[in-house]
Amino acid sequence: MKAIRGKKALVTGAASGIGRSIALALAREGVDLFLLDVDEENLTTVVETARSFGVRAIGRCCDVGEPAQITESVRALENSWGELDILVNNAGILYHGRTESMTQEQWNRLLSVNLHGPIQLIRELLPLLRKQPEAHILNVSSVAGLVPGREMAAYQTSKFALVGLSQSLRAEYRRSGLGVTALCPGLVDTNLAAAARARKWVTSDLNPPAFLRASPDRVASRALKAIRRNQGLVVITGHGRALWFLYRLSPHLLDLWRRVSLVVLGACLTPRRKD
Length: 275
Prior knowledge:
By secondary structure, this protein is of the alpha/beta class. It has nine helices and seven strands. Strand 1, helix 1 and strand 2 form a beta-alpha-beta unit. The longest helix has 27 residues. It is globular and about 50 Å long.
């Protein structure tokens, strides 16, 4: 997409974290916004901030894990604008713990939000996107969608699938003016883990050190670059790129890296005794 000023974008999970940062980065570039989130209070604040940049911004409370709410939101967008240039599928939730401890309801809920919601939005919005000379879909996946880990089976299932979906759509529509990006950040300083703890979806330790976490604004800046350049797969943070490189080079090296990292981080984070 050569220019994004004056375009129209829909962003999910826009009330906080990466979604908020992408929404406001787009607003600064002169993009009108249709923003979705379940957190209506914080979404209202984001909408007001976006409008301060001189763009039109609409906020709508929508649970992307509920198909009927997605359809209603798409109809509202069609009635308000009748067109769309950029779709950002960002909303997501996390379960961290042993797979055997997950209930069927937890599996269904996570896949509904992280995967089925984006699929439905893409399916229902493709007609609008295809009408534009240039359009773009940005799916916010994760390094966890490229590199396997422990105790995140459902989350990783959704993120691996989102990467595959993005690559398939990119292959299908690459000559039609529709660009597709799978954005794969490493650790990011968001409330994803805190939200999981609040719903008691974290059953084991999940507290990565701050120096490994990127800011949402950094991710947003890279996201806009990916849209402009129509990049298919973007991996963010040095730590994330290192994991992906080691996994492609040798899964055994990745296992060794993880064991060494745990020892080093443990030593760094353990308080020293004061005699």
